[in-house]
Amino acid sequence: MTTAPVTRFSTSGTTGAPVGWLRTEAQLVAETELLARLLDADPAVRVDAVFTHAPPAHLYGHLTGVRLPEVLGVPVRQVPQTAAFDVGAARHPLLVLLPASFAVLERSSHAFAHCARVTMVFSSAAIPEAAGAVRAALGPRARLVELFGSTETGLVATREHGGSPEWTLAPDVRFADALLAAGEGRLTVSSPRLAAREGEPPPGEHRLDDLVRVTGPATFRWEGRDGRLLKVNGRRLDVDRLLSELAGAAPGHVLRCCPERDDVRGEWFTVTVEPTETAAAGAGVPATLAAAVEALPAWQRPRALIPVARNS
Questions:
Q1: Looking at residue 65, what DSSP letter applies?
Q2: 138-151: pLDDT as tens digits
Q3: pLDDT tens digits along 2-12
Q4: Do 109 and 137 form a contact (C-beta atoms < 8 A)?
């Protein structure tokens, strides 16, 4: 008996211990072919090189930065996330972006003056507002394709930035019957590309954390996330888990998270710090809390700790 080859990908973030998700070789090949048809559709301006900010250890980076260049037969360059894209002599580059990539592109759009077409691909539900400025700077040569999905599902839907706000399901993805009947709720889909948890068979359906409104047999609008999840530069942050960890460093205070859009991270947040009756008057932000925040990984730190008056 032979076993089909599988590749393990892990979720990243603070939503619990990393979970391994297994994808078969057939699933990876099918998804890469979908991406090739989507991103290299115009025979007059074929992609001639790929430049990527996305880590290849994760599904998005692996598909776009490892598999896709092989299928297209073009060179690929992994670029540090804070570095500008040096596309050299490439006339039709494909740029694989993270939320922080748009701030880099805003500062370096002149580097693409010789390009006939700049295709950009981005994977997240919330795109930074700087995306519009980047497209405007590049002009009609720019094409920005947004991907919707997760480690667990792979590619679920796509849309063209600057076009319809609706997402269109990938050709092999279907809404769950219950979601179609309700018309709105948590996005639940079936697909032959759903990953399997280690030691378990592939699921028939997967329910994501995203809230959607169904607008057609294969289209939807994204309405936000169920629960307290943010995606900070593409990594899932469980806000309640983070606040629970920080609470021990701020006895006598109530911590609250205020999500915000951010042009570098896509999504970010501030934390308000409100004293209870047991806290000393006028104490402000406890030094122990500030130290605990400083000890966090950089991507998990709030933009600011904001003291607020009691009962304000």
A1: I
A2: 999 999 999 999 99
A3: 456 788 887 65
A4: yes
